[in-house]
Amino acid sequence: xSAFEEVRARLKREPRTWxxxxxxxxxxSHLLEALLKLEQRVIGLDNFSTGKKRNLEQVKELVSAxxxxxxxxxxxxxxxxxxxxxxxxxxxxxLHEAALGSVPLSMAEPLxxxxxxxxxxxxxxxxxxxxxxxxxxxxxxxAVYGDDPVxxxxxxxxGKPLSPYAASKVMNKMYAGVFAGAxxxxxxxxxxxxxxxxxxxxxxxxxxxxxxxLSALLRREPVQIHGTGETSRDFCFVENxxxxxxxxxxxxxxxxxxxxxxxxxxxxTTLKELFDLLQAILQRRRPSLPKQQPIHDDFRPGDxxxxxxxxxxxxxxxxxxxxxxxxxxxxxAMDWYCTNLA
Length: 342
Hints:
The chain is α/β, with parallel strands linked by helices. It has helices at 3-13, 26-37, 53-62, 65-68, 81-88, 103-108, 110-130, 164-183, 209-218, 238-250, 271-285, 312-318, 326-341; strands at 17-21, 41-46, 71-75, 93-96, 135-141, 187-192, 194-196, 224-226, 232-233, 235-237, 259-263, 269-270, 295-297. The strands form four sheets. The chain has a seven-stranded parallel beta sheet with strand order 3-2-1-4-5-6-11, with helices on both faces.
């Protein structure tokens, strides 16, 4: 039995109370779905700045009525300490997903990025400490590796942050360390690499590349690649992210706590390879769609050229084992993409 299977079995036997911030977002809604299906009690917080009510509605359709009744939602913002304190009451574990999660948007609005990602994070730590939360698991990002050229990315080797978003995630780790050392608040940070899956927003200038490109292909619109197409990323299916959060929240390994971990697949894919794969999978489902050639434009400021995760630390200390590679994840998500992005 894998570590993740053991955790799921234990949680079903011994339900806990969880707070998921950013619960109406892409990743937050998947955490909610997984927890409710494990018969957990979930408090959710979201201000709908990027989260969508339709994500919560889709989760409601995927769980039983009894499971849905275990969910309590609060509309509010993490930049308000009183709100953070209210939703932390009686909580065992915090899964902190709420953030302004876009490198380009942080370049355009650095103050908004700092307020959400740094002040909001600090508020959650203060509230979690006051209410004696057992552990805070917080979302970080591969963006923190910045201009460090070494591949794969290893947790203890950072470069210079290239965006306010990356800087905010570096500050999160520093604050988590301070609260662990000064106040005894246990936490674990998860550095997500490029996450994809159902319920990921394809709209807007700052949309993630997979839903944005699929939306364009389904609508027979041109696809834009920033740069030559040789830029590479580690694309990680959202089910792997859910696994890492539950493992981090519940690990009983004392050496695993107050650490930060890469969460990815451990494989790099160039944007050109990704485009070809998306088009091939779509062609199998929609043979009438025309084949396209992408349009290349300028490389985006604040982005990094190459990124791939070394996930050995998460494997050794948390028992993390990715269950879906890029193609498997796309195959599972493609029906949702075709239904919701066209």
